[in-house]
Amino acid sequence: MKNIKKRLIVILAFGLVLSISTPVLATEFGEQNESTTESAPPTETSTKNNSIEEQKSKKELLKASANAVVRKTNLSFKIGDTPTAQDFVTVNDDSNNPTFTFKNGQPVTNAPGNYSIEINVTFDDNTSTDITVNYIVKEAAPLATLKTTTPVIELGSKPTPNQFATPAAGAKLSFKSGVPSTKKTGTFTTTIIATKDGKTSELIVTYKVLDQEPPTISVNPDDYPFVIKGETITPSTFVTATDNSGKVTLTFKPGYEPTYSRLGMHTFVVIATDPSGNTSEFSSYYVIVSDKPTLKAPTLDLKRSTPSILYGVTMPNLGVIAEDEDENLIGWSIEDEKGNFTITFETPLQPGDIFALYSSTEVEYSEKTYYIYDPETLKIRELYESPSEVKTINTKKSNTNETKKIIPKTGDANSISLTLIGLILGGSSVIILRKK
């Protein structure tokens, strides 16, 4: 019984305590709730700040390395170039997406020299840095350069621009005022235009027009090697010369001047020179022959001779020449050691034909003796010696009388042995051309 009472007393006491303390607890809890509600904003700010710090921490972890962007060295540009800011730096690490700007405006490139420029580099981590770069501005490579020596153009030729200047790779050259004239020798100027990629430059060049072509030498007719003893000999005796300048001088080469008196074969050398000093040389042979008959004339055996074959005798080892009345060769023979000769005609003599015989060496000859195949007797006979003899001859070609003047036996002092032709043809001629 006592125990039940004790329990009731405890329960009642506990209930009393609860009834007293409940309002207090409610008040504390209410104040506590109000306090929590009022401090909510600071809690949110703290959270945001923590988020920014975390972001900053992450950004710091992604910050560009010290050598992400570095300046270029030994940098150079040409006059007129327009470089960008990035042309001045080398990017080693682009993970922070660097961008580049000129800090103080476009760099100087309009004049040669040494310069510096500041490049502002900005990264996506909101950091930036300035880099100072040194650079050189050089003269632009020329589109063409003049020749190192004064161009020499041939007289009368058509020059090209490349004879005056050397173009850069890809450049083209042209004359500003058309192809310059080269009709006269002298010193002149012309303007060359060089073009490449829309750019042009002009070069004024001085050049010379010279005659570098040697004269042309032409040999006179085939009889030039034969010169009569005592005749005046000049270079024009043997050759003529022409030149693009229109003027040329002929002279004998020193030591090869001609002789005038000594019979026989001789060598000569002619030099042709134009006003510019270009020369040509021609060398050959000539023969001085006697100016008068010196050998004994051949004797024709009239009894044995026929219209087809002539027989006779003269000095040993000479040549005997047979010519028609127009001095055309119709036959010849070399005598034996006793002086006997035989001449065979390809075309037999016709009644009324006149021919001459004379002996000859390379440089000497005899008087001519004239014969006729008499149309009346049909025999060969010697003509009369009188220089004024005029004889009426009936030829087989005509039934009418024809008057002919008979050439005197004394002959022609300017007649030259035709056997010399073979001798000269056996020689050689050489033409040598020289430029000044």
TrEMBL record:
Residues in Gram-positive cocci surface proteins LPxTG domain copies: 407-436
Main location: secreted
Its membrane topology: Peptidoglycan-anchor
Residues annotated as signal peptide: 1-26
Top-rank taxon: Bacteria
InterPro entries from the UniProt entry: LPXTG_anchor, Rib
Record region (Disordered): 31-57
A Pfam family: Gram_pos_anchor
Protein name: LPXTG cell wall anchor domain-containing protein
Organism from which the protein derives: Listeria monocytogenes
